């Protein structure tokens, strides 16, 4: 089963490379993208049954990934939300855990861990 994944990332190069990597290695199907807080919140809340996984960057063209994360608080238990950021500090990880994020990955050195997470999630959701 492919994980229906929505990605909130404002850098087009990172977004496209991430989609290509996850679709090739982790049975992920990108069902949509956004590059602003408002677009991400609108898509994730109005299409709440259309995604299994949301991957969210914290720093966006407009707004913040934290706002997108807050909009996902009422998601189904099977839906997972992860942060992929260049700023995956201890403080950020703690803040994300407090607001219900399932995992946090650093863009610079934890892409393999994100791929592994997606593989594991895909194998348990089928």
Give the topology string: H per helix, E per strand.
EHEHEHEHEH
Structural class: alpha/beta
Number of domains: 1
Give the % helix.
40-55%
Q: How many distinct helices?
A: 5
* Rounded radius of gyration (Å): 13 Å
Layout of strands and helices, then pairs:
Layout: E1 3-8, H1 12-25, E2 28-34, H2 37-46, E3 53-56, H3 65-71, E4 80-85, H4 90-98, E5 103-106, H5 111-125
Parallel strand pairs: 1-2, 1-3, 3-4, 4-5
Helix pairs in contact: 2-3
Task: Give structural notes.
By secondary structure, the chain is an alpha/beta fold. The chain has one domain: Response regulator (Rossmann fold). It contains five helices and five strands; from the N terminus they run βαβαβαβαβα. A five-stranded parallel beta sheet has the order 2-1-3-4-5, with helices on both faces. The termini are close together.
In brief:
This protein is α/β, with parallel strands linked by helices and 126 residues long. Helix content is 44%, strand content 21%. The protein has a five-stranded parallel beta sheet with strand order 2-1-3-4-5, with helices on both faces.
Main attributes?
126 residues; 5 helices; globular; 44% helix; five-stranded parallel β-sheet; alpha/beta
């Amino acid at each position: 089963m492919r994980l229906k994944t929505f990605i909130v990332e404002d850098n087009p190069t990172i977004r496209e490379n991430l989609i290509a990597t996850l679709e090739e290695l982790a049975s992920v199907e990108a069902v949509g993208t956004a590059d602003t807080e408002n677009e991400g919140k609108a898509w994730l809340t109005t299409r709440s049954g259309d995604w299994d996984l949301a991957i969210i960057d914290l720093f966006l063209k407009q707004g913040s990934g934290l706002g997108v994360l807050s909009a996902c608080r009422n998601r189904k238990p099977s839906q997972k939300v992860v942060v992929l950021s260049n700023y995956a500090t201890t403080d950020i990880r703690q803040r994300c855990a407090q607001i219900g994020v399932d995992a946090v990955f650093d863009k610079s050195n934890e892409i393999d861990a994100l791929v592994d997470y997606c593989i594991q999630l895909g194998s348990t959701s089928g």
